[in-house]
Amino acid sequence: MKQANLNEIFSNHQTGVLATANTQGEVDAAVFGSCRLLDDNTVVVGLGNNRTLANLKFNPYATLLFATPGPSVFKWAGARVYLKLTDLLETGSLFEETVAEVEREAGKMAARMITTVATFTITEVRPIVDFSG
User: What integer pLDDT is reported at residue 12 of this predicted model?
Assistant: First the structure.
């Protein structure tokens, strides 16, 4: 998938589903509106003190799913963005910027819930529907 397409996906989708797994392999999927593309290879997500954060502390791999239904499943827009955690931040400029952005987009209550900002490296991007294997 081309970078321009990835930029478009992050710009056009207000929310995504972030899937993580714990040490036993039990999967969690959570809706997030604070996902943003920081640069060509980095995703930033604001997290509360929740299951997603707990999972990431033990398993650094996650998948972010963006999907917009179309007239048929073959015409859906979106992507599957595979990620590897690079850092968990509780202070600093990126933390403050993320909290401020969440406050602008979702309000003060949502911003106050953020305790940690996760940064991820993109390891793979696949279309929402992909028959190539």
Answer: 76
